[in-house]
Amino acid sequence: MAELGFRTIDEMVGQSQKLKVREDIAHWKYKNLDLSPVLHIEEAREADGVYNQTEQNHNLEEVLDRKLIQAAIPALEKGEAVKAEFPIINTDRSAGTMLSNEISKVYKDQGLPQPMEVKFNGSAGQSFGAFLAKGVKFEVEGDANDYWGKGLSGGTLVLYPDAKSNIVPEDNIVVGNVCFYGATSGESYIRGLAGERFCVRNSGAKVVVEGVGDHGCEYMTGGVAVILGSTGRNFAAGMSGGVAYVWDKSGDFESKLNPELVDLDPIEAEDKALLQEMLTKHVEFTGSEVAKSFLDNFEASLATMVKVMPRDYKAVLQKRKAESEQSKEVEAV
């Protein structure tokens, strides 16, 4: 920087006259490459800056979370239960994140002592419920965008289409891509289909949805994903932990699976109990006809339910189980 005559990085911005184009590259790909439009220095008034000169205003004082925090005062100050309802639009991004920050300041990772339940009506923006704290339940009647439940941290998220809509939920996408990215705990119940990369890097959340796009459960390390419908291609790529259940009514799921790290295992007694619990909640929270149909014909439905299990994770669980049984035998002696 000093050799070029600059004291700071900011001083270097836009000074393309200091760059020299190499003329010694003979590769055919460079033959017609002209960098002059990229290196052109635009004339600017002396008062104009070539890098950002003003602080951005994100209007944080006007975001939806300010209303949520206000509604949560009885919970934050007195530990009381709270119920509220708000409209929501797609520019309301990261709803619940600032609220969860306030909750963590008071209750740390324990979450709220009494439930806070908030109903939203409309179209939720990106990152709805991101990092949502334990004790908070958000319910959306409408639809939602990408990054639903990102970093979910113990909260509960519910989504179902507007009652006035005539769509068939299990045939329509109601939430965008990359749901539950990096989620660590909590639950979610989605009546309808999700986009691509559902549960990517999920490490602890338990979720139900009625179909997903490509790359479902990619890099998942923990948690449970129940998919009551079809998936896209490359399912479970890089999946090293957690478990996924896919209702494979069409019988073609194996062709969409990335088998590098996972196996398809039989449904066991503990799986049945978990599925019954999660699907019962799904019906209760969303009114899902798909989950109701599954439960009404539970044993028959299980015949087409596929369990996706990472091999290394399964080996660890089996080892722990064997050690636990061995310990019990020693104690009995």
UniProtKB/TrEMBL annotation:
<keyword id="KW-0314">Glutamate biosynthesis</keyword>
<keyword id="KW-0285">Flavoprotein</keyword>
<keyword id="KW-0411">Iron-sulfur</keyword>
<dbReference type="InterPro" id="IPR013785">
    <property type="entry name" value="Aldolase_TIM"/>
</dbReference>
<dbReference type="GO" id="GO:0006537">
    <property type="term" value="P:glutamate biosynthetic process"/>
</dbReference>
<comment type="similarity">
    <text>Belongs to the glutamate synthase family.</text>
</comment>
<dbReference type="GO" id="GO:0046872">
    <property type="term" value="F:metal ion binding"/>
</dbReference>
<keyword id="KW-0003">3Fe-4S</keyword>
<dbReference type="InterPro" id="IPR051394">
    <property type="entry name" value="Glutamate_Synthase"/>
</dbReference>
<keyword id="KW-0288">FMN</keyword>
<dbReference type="Pfam" id="PF01493">
    <property type="entry name" value="GXGXG"/>
</dbReference>
<dbReference type="GO" id="GO:0051538">
    <property type="term" value="F:3 iron, 4 sulfur cluster binding"/>
</dbReference>
<keyword id="KW-0274">FAD</keyword>
<dbReference type="InterPro" id="IPR036485">
    <property type="entry name" value="Glu_synth_asu_C_sf"/>
</dbReference>
<dbReference type="InterPro" id="IPR002489">
    <property type="entry name" value="Glu_synth_asu_C"/>
</dbReference>
<dbReference type="GO" id="GO:0004355">
    <property type="term" value="F:glutamate synthase (NADPH) activity"/>
</dbReference>
<protein>
    <submittedName>
        <fullName>Glutamate synthase</fullName>
        <ecNumber>1.4.1.13</ecNumber>
    </submittedName>
</protein>
<comment type="pathway">
    <text>Amino-acid biosynthesis.</text>
</comment>
<keyword id="KW-0315">Glutamine amidotransferase</keyword>
<feature type="domain" description="Glutamate synthase alpha subunit C-terminal">
    <location>
        <begin position="87"/>
        <end position="272"/>
    </location>
</feature>
<keyword id="KW-0560">Oxidoreductase</keyword>
<keyword id="KW-0479">Metal-binding</keyword>
<keyword id="KW-0408">Iron</keyword>
<keyword id="KW-0028">Amino-acid biosynthesis</keyword>
